[in-house]
Amino acid sequence: MREIKFRGKRKGNKEWVYGGLFYCDDTALIVESLRNYEGEITLEEYYEVDPETVGQYIGIKDDNDKEIYESDIICIREFNSLDWEVYQVKYHGHRDYPAFDTEPTIDCDCNGISYATACCNIEKIGNIFDNPELLEVTE
Fold first, then answer.
1. Residues 20 and 74 in one domain
2. Burial bucket for residue 83 (CB in 10 Å: 0-12, 13-18, 19+)
3. In the chain, at which end, N or C, are there fewer CB atoms within 10 A of the end residue's CB?
4. CB–CB of 8/18 below 8 Å?
5. Domain count within the chain
6. In terms of domains, do 67 and 112 share one?
7. Angle at alpha carbon of residue 74, lines to 18 and 55, rounded to 5°
8. 112 found inside a domain
9. Which residue in 102, 76, 105 sits closest to 89, CA to CA?
10. What is the number of alpha carbons within 13 Å of residue 5 lying toward its C-beta?
């Protein structure tokens, strides 16, 4: 089963929260659900988040088992290479296909995220909200 979850920065203290996303009028809310050992929900907390920071989990973890979300900054290295390249994870729904991909795009015959997952080492190094300077290296 595919896990669908989101993250966003709380308004006020700017901490990241993770969980389900919903909107009430123009307010973005993320609900964190705590579960007991049997998997039953024991507590739900709702947090108002900055809608500009909301990103979806793309269903992939890096080589260090860190979840990768939309707006994360990742380093990718082909298995037979020593060179790492820096990319941002973006949702490309406004382009030719609705999918998560890299920006800049990877020159390959398929989706860049799919290519990286199959043929590369991947390391999450930050995100555009906390570490925008990481992208300056590629400009």
1. no
2. exposed
3. N
4. no
5. 2
6. yes
7. 30
8. yes
9. 102
10. 14
**Residue type at position 28:** A
Residues 48 and 115 in one domain: no
Q: Which two tokens stand for residue 94?
A: 């406004």
Cα(90)–Cα(52) distance, rounded to whole angstroms? 13
pTM, entire model = 0.88
Residue 35, helix vs strand vs coil: strand
* 1 assigned to some structural domain: no
Structure tokens at 91: 């949702």
pLDDT in tens, 90-133: 998 776 778 899 988 888 878 889 999 999 999 999 999 999 99
User: Which DSSP string do the residues of 4-53 spell out, in sequence order?
Assistant: --EEEEBTTT--EEEEEEEEETTEEEEEEEEE-TTS-EEEEEEEEE-GGG
Q: How far is Cα 38 from Cα 7, in angstroms, rounded to an integer?
A: 24
Same domain for 73 and 11?
A: no
Per residue in 53-101, pLDDT tens?
Answer: 999 999 999 999 999 999 999 999 999 889 999 999 999 877 677 889 9
